[in-house]
Amino acid sequence: MVVSEDDVFLALANPVRRRLLQLLTAGPRTAGDLADQFDLSRSAVAEHLRVLRQAALVHDEPRGRHRHYRLTAEPLTHVGDWLHPFERFWRQRLRSLADVAEEDQ
User: Fold this and answer.
1) Nearest-angstrom CA–CA distance, 105 and 70
2) Of 28, 48, 76, 84, which sits with the fewest C-beta atoms within 10 Å of its C-beta?
3) What is the pLDDT of residues 18-32, one digit of tens each?
4) 53-101, pLDDT tens digit by residue?
5) Where are the alpha helices (DSSP H) in 1-105?
6) Cα-flanking dihedrals φ and ψ of residue 71, to 5°?
7) SS3 call for 79
8) Residue 35, number of CB atoms within 10 A of its CB
């Protein structure tokens, strides 16, 4: 399956899906465990996981009666590549913030 940059960005556009990815940075988790982290139905969380799977941002593996999800970060390189030209804007702001913090000390 070929994943486009648009698929990745569309998947990341939703705050629930971003939170799911954050949870998976700590390691693989079951679908039920992930669903328990939200005030959403399990089917709603399953739909978000499906979108992440289609964007190749997560991989799922059935183990017995449970489905385990893990982060697959490779598609995030699209995001990094896209953000790279904008780094100079926040790098300058961080330098300014560091200068102010040093002055206060």
Assistant:
1) 43
2) 84
3) 999 999 999 999 999
4) 999 999 999 999 999 999 998 999 888 888 888 888 877 777 777 777 7
5) 5-12, 15-24, 31-35, 42-54, 76-83, 87-104
6) -70, 135
7) helix
8) 19
> What is the identity of the amino acid at 31?
A
Rounded Cα distance between 48 and 60, Å, is 13
Strand partners of residue 59: 70
Q: Which two tokens stand for residue 45?
A: 């969380």
Residues 90 and 8: their CA atoms lie apart, in Å, by 23
* Ordered structural domains, the chain, with CATH: 5-104 (1.10.10.10)
What amino acid occupies position 10? L
pLDDT of residue 47: 97
What is the crossing angle of helices 76-83 and 5-12, to 10°?
90
